[in-house]
Protein 1
Amino acid sequence: MKTIIEPFRIKVVEPIKMTTPQEREEALQKAGMNLFLVPAEEVLIDLLTDSGTGAMSSEQWAGIMRGDESYAGAKSYFRFEERLQEMTGFDHVLPTHQGRASERILFELVGGEGKVVPNNNHFDTTRANIEHSGASAVDLVVDEGKNPRDRSPFKGNLDVAKLERLFSEVGPERIPLVMITITNNSGGGQPVSLQNIRDVREVCRKHNKPLFLDACRFAENAYFIKLREPGQGDRSVAAITREMFGLADGATISAKKDGMVNIGGVLLLRDEELYRQAQNLLILTEGFPTYGGLAGRDLEAMAQGFEEVLHEDYLAYRLRSTEYLGVRLLDMGVQIVEPPGGHAIYIDAKSFCAHLPPEQFPGQSLVCALYRHGGIRSCEIGRVMFGENATMELVRMAIPRRVYTQSHVDYVIEVIGEVYERRQALKGLRMVYEPPALRHFTATFEEV
Ligand code: F0G
């Protein structure tokens, strides 16, 4: 087989700034060793997130010019609505400014004191919105999903037995809906199988509860299904996508991921009454239902993005280029969450910095080392983010869509390799400033 290449050529370029080790050290100290607080200009390769950081296509930019900015009933809204209806089979499509706005509306309506919302793994904003409503958020991912070395094909699956147990323990009346995150971001970007969605749907049907998808990375999940699930290899990603959404009663989507845009979100609903209530909340805080806090041009770009993301040559390149980074790291002896996920590679910082105890934030120490050594920005997903609840110490390198070339990735591999050679020199950290909530965004550190 020939090399899988980037299925696009570059039309516009954005220079990135080379910095000296001394400049990076200064930026790091000024930011209290928190990479969220380092100005983006001081970063050479930015792998902080794949959210809103992708490159739009020439057709998307053309759509930006075509955007209809009418307050109500804009042409761009109808194009967006039609695209989502066709792709997902849902009738009711609400635009929002990003994923968490969809979550906030949904959980204001179905959450509340005493309620319990299960998921494979809640993303942090989903959890925060559920808890903000007074409800509690429960993670029920399969056990394989918690072991970085387990190579099962669908480590994002929701454990059906644990879900049944939750229903009998807390009682169906306290569970307003069941959610599945595809792919499972907090669990290493691992996919969920079609069979698992069907099985969870069956449990929901039994208890007469709606199933919702947190579908930010639905296209990557659908392509994993095509590659890995028995009997799915000959189907189109579009058909698999339609079936995944067809099994659900609703979905929240951050279009900043597989929507291929810099800003935007979606709330999909089947239930008429819930839709009407959501529409009212949308008007209250986001905007009229035909723009939902976005410009008409954003809706145009989303409609086009949701089209392009299902191109299978794009998805083959996307998953393969992420896998390439992962496989090269494994070859060097760097333990990652296996098998590689769709949008990111997660380094197991516990084994990378085996000499550092968890209280000294090994993940954050590695994040700082990658920046110091090569100007790479990554993100700790461990003790800093989740406190004592952290089950793993991970460093996520998320890959923006259609942004970096293979030589950028080769550079990242070299930097990690050199840091790995000298890993014994990495120092532990202590938290100097600890904000009360979502502390990873603003906490500051110093070396122990
Ligand atoms: N759900 C999942 C699974 C996500 O990964 C995100 C965002 C959201 C919901 C919220 O969407 O940012 O548009 O409000 N994840 C980004 C990340 C921020 O870096 O993984 P949003």
Protein 2
Amino acid sequence: MTPRKIIIDTDPGQDDAVAILLALASPEEIEVLGVTAVAGNVPLELTAKNARVVCELAGRPEVRVFSGCDRPLGRDLVTAEHVHGKTGLDGPELPEPTMSLEDRHAVDFIIETLRAEPPGTVTLCPLGPLTNIATALRRAPDIAPRIAEIVLMGGAYFEVGNITPTAEFNIYVDPEAAAEVFAAGAPITVMPLDVTHKALVTKPRNDAFRALGTPVGIAVAEMTDFFERFDREKYGSEGAPLHDPCVTAYLIRPELFSGRHINVEIETTSELCMGMTVADWWRVTDRPANATFMREIDAEGFFALLTERLGRL
Ligand code: BDR
Ligand code: CA
């Protein structure tokens, strides 16, 4: 199998970290062309640093990491230290990164890569607010038809919202960017809260990470230990939801997920519903389908894959 070439656009974030580790552990299926950082869970300086911390944890300091947009297109940045801690990667003690950031801006890297690679061969994997991707599409509309697929974590329909009653964090932080990405015409696959709230790190699953006995296994167990406090208190759930790893798991084992190809629009005007992903799940409009919106996950299969792959690092 030829590995899929991807760019991971991310705001690490413990769950972003696990998504990156899963990709780096899976070279047969995934070739990571670069990791682009965006402001989101924590400010850009920290997400750009955390992306490098994670690459070094994976033993892959040669992965290229680029720093991107430090704020949403037209709004102030909203962050989520209440979930991810002050550093964004609270939990394990991880060393300061020694690898450096690439000189190029993340948006330039995204544009230049999509122009340089054959059309339809590069998949974008946004795990945070969609600011970098929307900025690239604004500056270079010619890249849209060259994108193989955008597989993103964001939004919700049945679960409605996590940062507000009606919005999921990644979409809420930069709704204008999200609206532009969903309107770009590229094939889109969405991992919403409806899926990710079923990917819970229960105690036995956390124990399985720790039992790997490796620096990666132990760090992932410590990250998910930290990150679970918030969801346990808020939802009474059994453990931390691994939102972003659903994206990279989909690239490896798409059959773990199921959903519908439907129309999804982003609310950008209502203060009350700002950033809502208005998903036409029941197909009650004639708006054209623009995204595959996932709903179900084989959680056992997902955690079996994840644990096995993390064990390879
Ligand atoms: C999303 O928001 C962030 O807190 C997580 O990293 C994930 O990408 C979940 O709403
Ligand atoms: Ca994220």
